Input
Amino acid sequence: MSLVVVGSMAFDAIETPFGKTDKIIGGAATYIAWCASNFTQPVKQISVVGGDFPQAELDALTARGVALEGVQIKKDEKSFFWSGKYHMDMNTRDTLVTELNVLGTFDPKVPDSYQDCEFLMLGNLAPAVQLSVIDQLKNKPKLIVMDTMNFWMEVALDDLKAVIAKVDVLLVNDSEARELSGEFSLVRAAQKIMTMGPKYLIIKKGEHGALLFHENSVFFAPALPLEEVFDPTGAGDTFAGGFIGHLARTKDISFKNMKTAIIVGSAMASFCVEKFGTERLREISKADIDARLNEFVQLVNFDIDLV
Ligand code: AMP
Output
């Protein structure tokens, strides 16, 4: 039984008020894999890269317990490239360049060895690709979690709605929740989105934490107040990796355990933003993760005497 992840693997060029990178390794599935492999292995990856993607990066993922049989390598083509720029408000960013390259014609093939999929993480990429992966699985996974972004709402809304109808948990940020539902109130937006299919909805609010909705309940996980947010790229994917990684490790998909899972997601995202790209995620140990989780416990723990 395993965790299968689908999403982009990419080159990113990032500019923040604190620095600038040339092409570094990024992509939704890359962040998810680096993060989730702390909790469960193997992580069975589905993606596509060009001949320009460094073999050393693939080897590093393999060494980390990430299975790459589902990652196609198109030798004569270029990897997906994305470039973004953050301003002082790091909750919003401008996308400067999106070159789909290999992602533009990606036709995912789910290997037989992935058919034991129990947890499916649909990372950000074209909804038609996400749908194809769901359709290729012979048995319905125990839990399907989906991430997406406004880009797909604008260019592939019908496909997007078709995938949303098939997933258990949807992850979006606050502006995407408003765009998808046409509602300003996040509570109303959540109610509306949950009628589209998912029983659970997570609304990420960047440095203001994340909300988990289910039926009439709502739970809040803060983001850790950090002295320095260096580069928010991949924070959402890392959050998703921590969320599904925790659920896959514990094999418990109750609402109660999902509350813990969004705290784990927030803790992992707080590491991601400390350095450029996936750099910080590659360094952290179990002890670092445990210490950070403990900081979250301290952050929200309080007593109150009701009279
Ligand atoms: P996040 O900051 O969590 O939203 O994720 C950033 C990552 O998403 C970057 O590493 C990009 O390579 C990747 N990304 C950006 N736009 C897209 C897109 N349209 N499809 C797939 N991946 C994307």
In short: The first strand starts at residue 2 and ends at 6.
